[in-house]
Amino acid sequence: MKITLDNVVKTFDTFRAVHGVSLEIESGQLVALLGPSGSGKTTILRMVAGLEFPDGGSIYFGEQDATDIPVRERGVGFVFQHYALFPHMTVAENIAFGMKVSKVKRSRAEIDGRVEQLLALVKLEGLGGRFPSQISGGQRQRVALARALAVDPKVLLLDEPFGALDANVRRDLRRWLREIHEELGITTLFVTHDQEEALDLADRVVILNEGKIVQAGTPEEVCRAPNSAFVTRFLGDANRLEAAVSEGRAKLGAGEISLPGVGDGKAEIYIRPADLDWGTQGGGIPATVLRVLDRPENRRILAQLDDGTAMELDVTPETEVKRGDRGYLLIRRANAFAL
Amino acid sequence: MSTTTRSKPPRVGDRPAIRRTLIAGVLLVGAVLVLAPLIVIFFQAFSMGADTFAAAIAHPDTLHAIFLTVVTALVAVPVNTAFGVAAAWAITKFDFRGKRLLLIVIEIPFSISPIVAGVAYLFVYGLQGLFGPALQSADIKILFALPGIILASMFVTAPFVARELIPLMQAQGRDLEEAATSLGASGWRTFFSVTLPNIRWALLYGVVLCNARVMGEFGAVSVVSGNIRGQTNTLPLHIELLYHDYQTAGAFAAASILTVLALFTIVAKVLLERQGAGRGGRPAPAAAPAPVQGMNP
Q1: Are residues B17 and B81 located together in one domain of the fold?
Q2: Which end of chain A is more exposed for a tag (fewer CB within 10 A), N or C?
Q3: ipTM for the complex?
């Protein structure tokens, strides 16, 4: 089911949570709403679900205007941030709940069969008799998903689906959710503040800030061609330098970088730590090492330019470098935005 | 203990002498103020033998007082339970203008002296009151009759159920109800299958407290009932009457009934709190549906 948001606006008391958001989600896509807290992403998700109603604009499911359809009739599966499993019901009863209250009458055997099928889908066979308090966070998350899928929703909506889980469980569940999505092909929209999660999982990432869409595109598009300083900073660590651009080039220290497409004048230049090399010979920007942080996959150098600007760069674990060393920063890649 | 206190400076009141003095003092005051009078009631009730006790209880006026008290509770408790659940649901699950005002209104009976409530009812339904003449011409008797007693009791106990439920339901949030609705459940279905099972112990405790207070209410009822022996006397009023008639044993016998009710309420509270604490899988603040201390009068 294709979802279209047309200039949706939502205000809480005096706080403008969502300012005129327009968005198209193609049928069968897995889309991430990514943004810092307060960016309006959860409000948008809840409006698509029918748990909040927009003050202006429309939401379409396919060709149908769904703006005023209450959540009960909207046919969405919603997975809550803290799962909202019914604590007094077993896992199987939780999953069966939607089918039991449905207007479509199903026989007891039919419901039990579907519950078994869903338990198998979320790899929780044999745990149907447990209560939510007796299973782990990752398992609860999967029960919540099975419960949402039980009502054959047209659209699946997930609010910070992995927010409350350990890093390892989170990574596993992410892969698994992607597999389920490929298997079922259901249009899915999820909210996250974790860039890595959004980039790993989604076909398309919608980046929000202060209730507006800042950029939307495939993970490749937003990573390789961020359209603003905000997107660049939000997607990952970046060093910021200011420089004067003329004819698509900027001088930085002893070196020069080419910045095609940036107009003449002052610009801010963002460089990711991995896009900087450390050299002991001349040719880059001179810097002094302040600290070296060792990480499993690389070494991060915290360096200082001669004008006092702090810079961070990632180098291979084999690089010989220590506090107090002098060297040069070589820029391999950068994004620049006119000031 | 001494090894741990030696290595670090004592916290406030942590010194053994202070701690012991405080505990002993509290225990002593508790015994003198609360426990001793309760024991005296039973002592006095049985002081002239079990026969006198039985005779005092079996006296027609006493039986009528018990009957009246039970009828009052049978009406007031269900009505206030329904009101309490509805108020708690409205306050915790909906957003609306005047929510704070509603919370304050629910609190009023707690902060007001019951006798003021009784007098207020006189002004509304009494002969010189707002509806008095109209009621009299329609031949409806509210004051100095059962309806007045029930109304006054309901006024005094209106907050009990709501105040048990609101903190619990606030801690539980709206997620469960939203989840049920998104799965297609109707409002009633959501209430009975999802909300009610999660508040049942707190609700039961609220009902028990409400019942204890309805049966024990004196001030408000004393104003509106008219104190007619064998007709509009509830148990607490009857106890006072017996006492003023120097029927000490009878007064204490009747009082012991109310005391047993109080003990039953305490036991129920302990059991229900244990039930509440025994449930797992809840967010921490919702784990114990214990009442907020200090709001039980």
Answers
A1: no
A2: C
A3: 0.86
